[in-house]
Amino acid sequence: MNKALIAKLTAAVTLVALAGCSGGNPLQSSTTGENSGEIVVGSADFNENVLLAEIYAAALHGAGAKVTKKLSVGTREVIVKGLQDKSLAVVPEYTGNLLAYLDKSATQTQPDEVYNALKSKVPTGLAVLDKAQAEDSDVLVVTEQTATQNDLATIDDLSRKCGGFVLGAAGEWKQRWEAKIKQLYGCTFKSIQTTDAGGPVTVEALKSGQVQVANLFTTASAIDANKFRKLEDTKRMYPAQNVVPLIRSDALNDAQKKALNDVSKALNTDLLTQLVARVEVDKENAADVAADFLRDAGIPS
Amino acid sequence: MIFGEVFGWLTTAANWTGDGGLLQRIVEHLRYTLIAVLGAALVAIPVGLAVGHTGRGGTVIVGLANAMRALPTLGVITLLSLQLGVLRIGPVLFGLGLLAVPPILAGAYAGVQAVERDVVDAAAGVGMTSWQRLWRVEVPIATPLLLGGLRGAVLQVVATTTVAAFVGLGGLGRPLIDGQRVTDYPRVAGAALVVAALAVLLDLLLAGLQRLVVPGGLRLATRTVQRAG
Q1: Which of B18, B25, B99, B186 is the most exposed place for a label (fewest CB within 10 A)?
Q2: For B175, which residue in chain A has the nearest alpha carbon?
């Protein structure tokens, strides 16, 4: 009885421990699609990126491609590797973060500069197509009340008041931006409270007044939902993060490349924010939202 | 190559000291761990002993404890944080405490259950009351399993306390998450190693404690339990 009980408990503990380690390589079982004429569209594991991948997949389908989707593959490291080993062909990326990944010393922040630098850094065999105007970049936001009381519209306006405000941002913000914001805007926050990377903790901290300024992302549904005000980054401290298709150069024909470029042409930040909100707030299916977008933009799907 | 970088990161003094340094993170980490386990023990040990002693409710309690193991700690902590207020320590400690309850409860319950019926009957035969049987006979005999449960709880909690960083708090999850965000993998691996080392150290410490407090006559039992676990 006792040995059996101990064995059971041990088994339960082991199971829990194993459950924590599940996952593994999501690309392992994939067929390469190299010679089958199939285009494998992948995405990182967050809603907006999945939605963008759905849009790309539908647009490629409209351009006559046989498309397979491999969504929520994981982080940038895994995705770039997937493109290189030919298990992926197309993924939605962001210019600034991709550039920073490929070149740690990159300092460009303006959209065109970032994009041009990125084009020169993309590994052999891969390529980026046209960038969209749509950006999912870091942005400092305040509540509507803080904005009106202090007359804030830009980070420049904020700089006079920084000393009285606590900033809520991800843990790495301090390391990356504390010196930079001081240098560019002369802004030193009263303190920097670690929250999370533009997630619910940051939003709640701003709503509850534990922080007065929060670092979110431009397409976050929470900004409109809570009437937060984005502070314009007039001096472009944060690098541009335009949405851009990262592809394996030999995987797409010209018609298919044009389809993705048409998508980029139609996509701006406000529109992307609305589309993401339909997925995150209204819980609509990403594929349906993608189809609506393409129909409205007049792109075949 | 990565090993060299991790070693380099771990042996850089600047990574250990100052605001957000490893030493500060270790203290935070241990603080969360100890409070969570102590809180859980305060609840789980009395319940476990009561169930083991009376022999009532064993199936329910063990079932409940096993069901609790299935609760995803990160989910519980995130949910409670958003409901009760972010950046507060309470929700995190509660979530970690939930994780620590099942092994402690099971240890206490199984420990008392494991006392041979003859021994308990003999104790009753010499005129011990129910309380005396519990404190003088059952609890001492249960110590090896009880402490085994406690050790399991500490091990699980010390490894899981990293999730506190997900809701903006400190602990060794901070370098793990922040390092990952800036693709500083030596920092990620270094912090992971420190968590592992902390877990091993705490376990050794508790193993020593176990040797000290387990009654001499039960050493044999302790060895059996260790082999089974």
Answers
A1: B18
A2: A171
Domain B2-228 has CATH 1.10.1060.10: no
Pairing of strands A213-217, A138-142: antiparallel
Q: Residue A34: which pLDDT band, with cuts at 50, 70 and 90?
A: very low
Measured from the Cβ of residue B34, the count of other Cβ atoms closer than 10 Å reads 14
Beta-carbon separation of A6 and B229 below 8 A: yes
Q: Which residues of B touch A168 (CB under 8 A)?
A: 168
**Contact predicate B94/B80, CB 8 Å:** yes
The token duo for B163 is 């999730």
Cβ contacts of A207 on chain B, cutoff 8 Å: none
Compute the nearest-CA separation of B11 from chain A (Å).
20
Contact B183 A195 (CB under 8 A): no
DSSP β-ladder status, A166-169 and A191-194: parallel
Average of per-residue pLDDT across B5-22: 93
Task: Name the closest residue on chain A to residue B163, using Cα atoms.
Answer: A196
Task: Report DSSP letters for B100-121, one per residue.
Answer: HHHHHHHHHHHHHHTS-HHHHH
Instruction: Say whether residue B18 is in contact with chain A using an 8 A CB cutoff.
Output: no
Give the ipTM: 0.80
- Residue ranges covered by each domain of chain B: 2-228
pLDDT averaged over every residue in chain A: 90
Of A88, A92, A48, which is closest to residue A68 (Cα–Cα)?
A88
A227 by Cβ neighbours in 10 Å (0-12 / 13-18 / 19+) ranks as exposed
User: Quick one: CA torsion of A211, A213, A216, A221, rounded to 10 degrees?
Assistant: 80
* Distance between CA atoms of residues B169 and A193, nearest Å: 9
Identify which of B62, B113, B169 has the shortest CB distance to residue A2: B113
Are B158 and B202 spatial neighbours (Cβ–Cβ below 8 Å)?
A: yes
Chain A residues with beta carbon closer than 8 angstroms to that of B87: 193, 195, 201, 205, 210
- Give Cβ neighbours of residue A3 (< 8 Å, ≥ 6 apart): B228
Which residue, among B90, B84, B78, B85, has the nearest Cα to A208 in the 3D structure? Answer: B85
CATH architecture, range A38-135+240-297: 3-Layer(aba) Sandwich (3.40)
Neighbours of B155 (CB within 10 A): 21
> Among residues B114, B93, B112, B113, which one has the least CA distance to residue B42?
B93
Residue pair A89/A83 in contact by the 8 Å Cβ criterion? yes
3-class state of residue B16 by DSSP = coil
Q: Is A123 on the interface with B (CB under 8 A)?
A: no
Residue labelled with tokens 């504390």? A178
B182 close contact with A: CB closer than 8 A: yes
pLDDT 10s digits, B111-162: 999 999 999 999 999 999 999 999 999 999 999 999 999 999 999 999 999 9
Contact B166 A12 (CB under 8 A): no
